[in-house]
User: Fold this.
Amino acid sequence: MPTIINSLKKVLLSASLAAVLTLVFLTPADAARLKDIATFEGVRSNQIIGYGLVVGLNGSGDKSGTTFTTQTLTNMLKRMGITVSPDKVRVKNVAAVMVTADLPPFVKTGSTIDVLVSSTGDATSLQGGTLLTTPLYGVDQKIYAVAQGPISIGGFSVSGAAGGGVQKNHPTVGRIVQGATVEKEVPIRWLGKTDISLKLNQPDFTTALRTAELINKQLPEAAAQPIDASTIKFNVPEQFRGNLATMVADLESLEVRPDSVAKVIIDERTGTVVVGENVRISTVAVAHGNLSIQIKESFQVSQPGPLAGGGAQTVVTPQSQVEVQEESQRLLLLESGPTISDVVKALNAIGATPRDLIMVFQAIKAAGALHAELEII
Assistant:
């Protein structure tokens, strides 16, 4: 009996391993989920904004000369039954701020979202402050959320009487986690739709065609077809028209292999070079050498002799020594590479540093041997 059980375990283990290996080799290594490279038309977030006051600051608020802060404060006090003249207000613990947030799609009334609070006056820090009730408006000037709560700046700012100080992070911008309550939903026409459009985050005709083919394989009744480089339109099958969430969940998990144009990105400020997957280089000869110039300054002092007359003076004579060295680099032949790995090996053969590669790529592009877009940021 133990022998039979052990044999059965080995068979099951071999079958499981074979199934796992089959899944690994059937799934493209560079594939991505559809939900990570595309969005469904109409499903988007909306920006909302509001203007408010932060109170409770320890003398780091707006100065008395900030007119809009004092006007806002006096208007708020007036609504509470306290009348005060704006030119009589002298406070340092209040700061005027702009409050911004993203309203996610399908968010419901009563849900809470994060808000970002940014100083608009000359406050030095929002540390320890509390945002007073602030309505957040959409572009249609309707209130969609109301924000209020203590601000977290994720750092600190400490200064001394002499002017020195220590600062961590940015003290005039803070966040209130779950600090706004949604008061109005953004209407999205979703149920009952007979057709849906899918938008690719990075427009590409090849990716659009591959996506349409996968949708048709998953839902033959959808009749998906690419409209352009970023849009795929398909019909909603009859069985899903009352429950689009199920269909969308099935489509979001599809594995799509996105395509892209060959591109080389160069950041001259940091010396960063990023080479895309499809970059190809034709056969070309490259020699790259560095020119080193060194200048040494020295001074010689000429003292007058012991028998020199009274008019003799000490003379300082500057002398310059200039040395020029050019690094000798033999001419190397870079063979045409079919893959990015071959391109990297060929460029490493000349011993170029990242900053050297910037000049090498520009020269290869000028020679017409670089088959990719060269983008300098």
Summary: The first helix runs from residue 2 to 26. DSSP finds seven helices and 23 strands in the chain. The helical segments are 2-26, 34-37, 67-79, 205-218, 244-252, 340-348, 354-366.
